[in-house]
Amino acid sequence: QITLMESGPTLVKPTQTLTLTCTFSGFSLTTSGVGVGWIRQSPEKALEWLALVYWNGDERYNPSLGSRVALTTDTFKNQVVLTVTNLDPEDTATYYCAHRRRSDKWSAFDYWGQGALVIVSS
Amino acid sequence: DAQLTQSPSSLSASLGDKVTITCRASQRISNYLHWYQQKPGKAPNLLIYGASNLQSGVPSRFSGSGSGTDFTLTISSLQPEDFAIYYCQQSFAGLTFGGGTMVEIK
Q: Nearest by CB to B96, which of A49, A101, A105?
């Protein structure tokens, strides 16, 4: 059974760095075809993909966030850590990590965490 | 990146109705198009991947079609549990989501 869970702070100040941890079980990130992605949802319900790490260590990032977003993977701990630098109130959202459905073609997310609400405010 | 435009942004329908939601891509994306359902307070749930492939465990009243730039999600007979927001997502050019379609009770 595949599960994912996000953890991290709820309230962060502008200009600070956000660190969120996705802890997963039921799959290995070294299995061919899988991956873990981060997606956020604004209070207005818009979904925005942030980053994706593949089974082979390849990483992809949303270019609209520039160099503000980075991933760190610990395959032994089954964790993927997302960092977002230089936070702005516009970064207020629910942050989800999700399992990339095993595929050599499509990046669709078939299992999601419950989401972590992050509020950026002074 | 390819941008996705969903229509309508919301719709009202009755139980048993056939519902169709469209998703148009700003460039050709082959069949790299996926559909999700989201209920209040929950994470999105994958319904369709690769434009027309039903995800395991999803009722057969859901179907997807399309290729290139125009895609459709169809619910053949609307059930009470189908009232939700539906999103399309593409993974051909970057990874982007449509703006969502809210399906409400008439």
A: A49
